[in-house]
Amino acid sequence: MSQQRWQFYFLLTPFLLWIGLLIIWPHFNMLEVSLTERSWTQGDSFSFKHYLLFFQQSLYWNTYLRTAWMAILATFITLLISFPVAYYIAKVAKPRSKLALLMCCLLPFWLSELVRAYGWMILLRESGIISGLLQAIGLADAPIEMLYHDATIILGLVYSGMLFMVVPLVSSLDSMDNSYIEAGFDLGGNRWHIFWEIVFPYAMPGVVSGCIIVFMLNLGNYLIPNLMGGKDSLWFTEMVYTQFITRFNWELGSAFGILLLVLSSLLVWLALKLSGQSLSTTVGR
Amino acid sequence: MIASIPFKARDLKLYKLYIGLFLLFLLLPLVVVVVFSFNDSLFPALPWQGFSWTWYFGYSQPKLGLLHDSRMLRSIVNSFWVACGVTVLSLLMATINALLFVRFEFKGKGLLYMLMQLPLVIPGVILGVSILVASSQLANGLEEAIGWDWPWLRPGLVLVVFGQASFISAICSLILIARYRRFDRSLEEAALNLGANNWVAFSTVTLPYLRPTMISAGIVSFLMSFENFNTTLMLVGSDSPLTITMYERLREGSTPVINAVSVCLMVFSATLALVYLGFRKDAQD
Lengths: 285, 285
Hints:
By secondary structure, chain A is mostly helical. Chain A has helices at about 1-35, 50-55, 60-90, 95-105, 115-125, 130-135, 150-175, 180-185, 190-200, 205-220, 225-230, 235-245, 250-275, 280, and strands at about 35, 45.
């Protein structure tokens, strides 16, 4: 028995050190830094200055709200595009093409996000393929710049989030018994009713977990808005980066970091509450 | 196909068209990257200047190919070592976590299990800056208090390894825990009854059972580390891993050598992905 206890602590100690030193302590540290006012003459003191600054500067909180809004919009569009695809893979496709389709969806995501964003840049920029094609077939007389708009950020985000939506949807639709759908038809339902009253509710766990993962990835994305967005389409992660690395204002940067963390936790919590799911059934899968 | 739900021929065609367009959307950016890596032009754009291997093997400026681009090659080596470090650390932590959470019942297990998953819901940028803040403060504190200077606490590759491992180990843990839960504990007990000590039972019975899963978890963590950008960006020092170098080149407006690197990455990831699928199949049997 005592040997068992010894083994237990032998395993518990590295776990606690790991979580404590790499996750908990750094975040509390960041919270503390964000609440500190540095002064060369009077030393450090406690202050809400940086949070107040966030609310006073319209650029800061506008970017914050815009980031949240665009991340939600991109998540919603991802869901809209992915659902028919997931349904096709789970219910319509024959077993062999099913595997091939799933592989096709998986493939791009074994790749760095950088490469994917780069592909879109080659396609969309002023000297890019699509602009060139449009000119060649006479639909445009001058090069068109399709990169550097808000819409391209959304496109990039939707593209990078696709897999994380399709896979949970497929796995929840796969487990659905076809006889539910058949029963719905037998009882005289039309497609629309059957979709909203049988298929969609059944896929709800997949929808929630897909949406949460995609939303968090969107919110924390740095590359896509940075490479594919315009000069005036700031993302909140870019502001965190600017404060830390360019401006060297760690106090304000930490405050931004905490605010971003609050935003993501709050929205995830809200989504879980509204849908009656828990974190381990969605993210922990 | 569900026999009892007839799609009208026209509807099914439309549905298939949609899936086709979706696949085009998924693969187009990647195809474009591959094609333009063979374009004999200084820019990854139209017009097509003819097929060439120059972006792979070119040895003189301005058409310096990947094989002679020493900065790029060095960053690949950096990424390789970082990925090795992350994989080793993550697998070690994952094994510890699997033993801890599957074998032992203890007070606060649910809470600790939630803590273990916490890194997965924190945006990568925030994970990066929090570790940056904490380690820098620790380094400053140590230097002031006892005059020790620990350079690895400053931004650099060691910190990148810890930053990436902080969340990749959580992913590996989930994979290993899921597998270990399906393990028949009586096998281990049999070994103990037959006179093996704990370590022998673990290394001859449990470990071989977990090995395929450990290999596939290792592949996942290697790839995730190789492709990580957000956390790495915040912790990087003067030696940059591949994604950071590629990002800097992209911002400068690079030659198609980026395409050549991307193609190599694609081949590399696809190979690892296939190996992974092979081992995952093993792990499910």
